[in-house]
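User: what does the whole thing look like in 3D?
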Amino acid sequence: MTEQALRLDEAELRGLLDGRWAHVREQARDVLRGELFAPVHGLSVEEHRARTLAQLEALAKSGLPTYGFPESVGGRGDVGASVVGFEMMVNDLSLMVKMGVQWGLFGGAISALGTERHHTEYLPDVMSLELPGCFAMTETGHGSDVQSLRTTATYDPGAEEFVVHTPDESARKDYIGNAARDGRMAVVFAQLNADGEEHGVHALMVPIRDGRGEPMPGVRIGDCGVKAGLNGVDNGRLEFDHVRVPRANLLNRYGDVAPDGTYSSPIESKNRRFFTMLGTLVRGRISVAGGSGTATKAALAIAVRYGDTRRQFGRPGTDGEPEREVRVLDYLAHQRKLLPALARTYALHFAQEELVTRLHDLSLSSEHDDRAQRELESRAAGLKAVATWHATRTIQMCREACGGAGYMAENRIPQLKADSDIFTTFEGDNTVLMQQLTKSLLTNFQDSFGDLDQLGLVRFMAGKVFETVIERTAAIPLIDRLVAAAPGRGEEAGLYNRGWQLELLEDREKHVVEGLAARLRRSGKDGNDAFETFNRAQDHVLTAGRAHMDRVVLEAFVAGIDRCGDTSTAKLLNRLCDLYVMSVVEEDRAWFLEHERLSTNRAKAVTQAVNDLCRGLRPYAVQLVDAFGLRDEWLSAPIALGAEHARQGDPAPGRG
Amino acid sequence: MTEQALRLDEAELRGLLDGRWAHVREQARDVLRGELFAPVHGLSVEEHRARTLAQLEALAKSGLPTYGFPESVGGRGDVGASVVGFEMMVNDLSLMVKMGVQWGLFGGAISALGTERHHTEYLPDVMSLELPGCFAMTETGHGSDVQSLRTTATYDPGAEEFVVHTPDESARKDYIGNAARDGRMAVVFAQLNADGEEHGVHALMVPIRDGRGEPMPGVRIGDCGVKAGLNGVDNGRLEFDHVRVPRANLLNRYGDVAPDGTYSSPIESKNRRFFTMLGTLVRGRISVAGGSGTATKAALAIAVRYGDTRRQFGRPGTDGEPEREVRVLDYLAHQRKLLPALARTYALHFAQEELVTRLHDLSLSSEHDDRAQRELESRAAGLKAVATWHATRTIQMCREACGGAGYMAENRIPQLKADSDIFTTFEGDNTVLMQQLTKSLLTNFQDSFGDLDQLGLVRFMAGKVFETVIERTAAIPLIDRLVAAAPGRGEEAGLYNRGWQLELLEDREKHVVEGLAARLRRSGKDGNDAFETFNRAQDHVLTAGRAHMDRVVLEAFVAGIDRCGDTSTAKLLNRLCDLYVMSVVEEDRAWFLEHERLSTNRAKAVTQAVNDLCRGLRPYAVQLVDAFGLRDEWLSAPIALGAEHARQGDPAPGRG
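Assistant: Here's the predicted 3D structure for the full assembly of 1312 residues, as structure tokens:
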């Protein structure tokens, strides 16, 4: 890498990162100001809940929440904008999550699973927060396995009502946001029984509190109490004792019950119906991926600004005068803590933008494209998993990189860490999601997401001659060109040859997925127990998903840089992209060695490249985090806003 | 690995783990009972501080704190017991840390740096908690670099007093435990000036509050406020405005000032004196390593018990009846999250016991052994770093492995995570500690810990023909025998051949350390800037420390198993030890491939071995965590104490 200085065009970079929904980001920057939205710490649970609700009420008035709702009810029909709006709420992740519960999950379920009568009746009040609500899916006994939920909704044709019931503790709705304090209505997922038959999981509108805030008859509401973080969100538990709701309360887009109890659905297969219904809720998962990205950016912005001015030891051989002490970000070890994570954060940012664009465009498309929908769901599962794992790891590292200061609540990192910690679990446990992604890769999106169980999949594989087709996912002509120009598998290409890098990650993905397919096929043919077959390969399954995501994320990064209008800035982003690739390869270089994709010398050169790139990018680190456009008042950490800079006699960072 | 069932002798294993200071562990189990010591959550900061102080007062009456103090003042002169007592305080890590501040750091500094007059005057009140105190070392500007502290203590021969002063914000004492609320006295580390000369950092007794709890004249006390965790500890800031203390308040074991201002010390070199003084404080670091181990054990106990009964998905191909749902710990991915971490926790436990024994024996030895002391300090630095990193990573993983339940405060993991998070920073930043360890390896403990700066070290290396001598650290005859019996570097040995494993880790350490030495030597000869030379090799420096610790920890594990009196239990521990080694090798298998220590096939076999060992050990997982002997009331998590078991119809875990 050349060491020559590059000029970073800050406006260009900000514009590139803000992307298609820049106006929404600007709107959020404008709305989330002042005392009401300032990050706080040390509140009691009840104070924090009250504050979060007050923020939510102010948001309701800002118009931001209307983006995601149909124009027919006063919304703006802009799904992409709704996801981007959500991810900007980094001033307090409790607000982000409470917003997600009210408008994303609760409102989103009514939009996606209800029909016009539900839209008209409920959505205006959902948007205005007149009707605060819950998304009551997860139960104490089942969260990941939604198909096994145990709450029942039994149709009583005499009364033309559904009877919603919690048969046992396992069926209790658990961890439900908005339930403990504020929610008045819940979308309840339950096993539908009509006409004496089970029709699988459906959703119904169930009032849980009356106008005075008292629980409705037959509804028992519990409080989950203190959590590691997100204590501004009132998570609770719901139990139903034969609670009756009118027939019209069934969200009936994918399954309806006639007055006499006859069940009908546009989708015949019970299994496919279930996964179609779940699939419409994919936005929540994409939103969490985005939100975890912003939390990561905030932590990095704080740690990088601090590391840029914090000093500790003198340079050896000098007299130890304070002005000669080394800035901690000048240490290679410190750079290695923060800069590869920064590169990956950029990469994931572009992957997120790509995914939101797909979601948005698909929502506007007039014809239903089954395969595109399955790809979207798989990508959402994978990106949610890798983005939230990255957040957990990076924010943890930022805490350490800030030393004792990173442990002080006033410096925000503790709250970012504690709040985002559950992101790896909610909206789908990451380990489960990665397996769903891999299953889709194995079936090449031919079958619906999760539609095949392990046994089905093993049988499916057994009948196939399997070959992975690597389908490029972004900037396809450019990537085709880059790969075509790469010198091939040999050693000739420089490590920073983008075509070679792309091919390297494609090749790994193909090999890992095909190896897995062969393994399952062999085992399936031998008639082994499907569970054991799958279970013994579970680490392989997870590796396959990860390899796929590494490649997809790289493609998005390449596509993003291609949109950059300034040459010098693009050069810098290309170095950052090199750091992303080199750190991905370094982390998994054992695989590349085991499969003879890298020679031992070249593997060592990868480690050296990470070091070189860290050193080369270090001078730009502060500009690179500032380009995220997070307001100083959201960061709020004194160590990032001038306290340490003043002490060290450095110019203050930030932009007011 | 054979799959045959082994019988685990629970009493034998408990005895083995309890070790030399079993009676202290039993005493702690006996003392830490009932409502006063129960884990709590959701307290305000002030409530938590008050509760922690009340617990500390009860502890003071229990006699536990007297272990670490000299018999001359009513203590028991049992340093090992004091460390083991500290590490048992897992019922609330705030209590653990507050105990460490009062008796370990504050009392320990008076013991180690003071002379008889200080012992007699202060220690009885320190033990009884009549005199709550602070260890005021870290400053806002310098924590890791203690030599650069800026607080001054200037001797005034006219008044026969020291004037303690904080010249600027950078010199403010920061993060000081016991300062914000309870402390009355502080051991203050300051640059000593006497007779117009600087004598380096020394410690003095400085009263900070009067009998009514008001700050003493000239002392300004601040409050660090809310922290990520440990909010039962009142961390604060101290500033001194020309505060005068009598001459006798200098802790004068290593440096004294005569009435006329003449300075004298038994150690001539200022640098060596400084590092000798710091070295006497090594117990604090060893205690933190132990405490992080107990926090890790508690989190694993909760996650393993929960994973042993929690179910989610049905087995494929069955009808999905609840009783056929798979326990999550039966999934390979779940085993991989918890069981290698459990194996490493065992390994670190034995390494900790080994280290405490060394510390203890050295404290009793009549002659001073310089080299043994340096080795102890290096080992303490390394073990503190690897043990606390392991804690952070493992507790995080336990949170994820428990899903939403792991995010609920009632299930304890959130508090364990937040409290232990700072362990990687305090008592020495891990990254700094690992570098100190590696420096000692490079000088083969020939020079004092940290005594050489980077320039000195580069010069030192330049003059040497360097060869690492691997010195075995535990069960030496046994390990000599095992290594001698190993089939050598080839492929012939089974992966579970202990001699081969030992040699593999020894060989890696030797190669990494020698490679580093050669690199520094070359660069030093070329006359490169010492900082740049060191900085460019910083990742190599950290790798060397880690390779050393992996080997030392393995030796301790092997030695521990050798003490096991039951054959079947020992066999099981040997499997666990295999898992420790295989997961260490798996994590760094790129290195073994790059350096042709493993063939690609053998590297793949290592991954398979981890899987096999996980499956083989899974049936014993609950017994293995129960053997830690943590009281159920310390774990306190409903998910680990029967709530989930009752729901699933499984027998309740735990032992009352």
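In plain terms: The mean pLDDT of chain A is 94. Chain A has three domains: 16-132, 135-269, 282-442+457-471+498-635.
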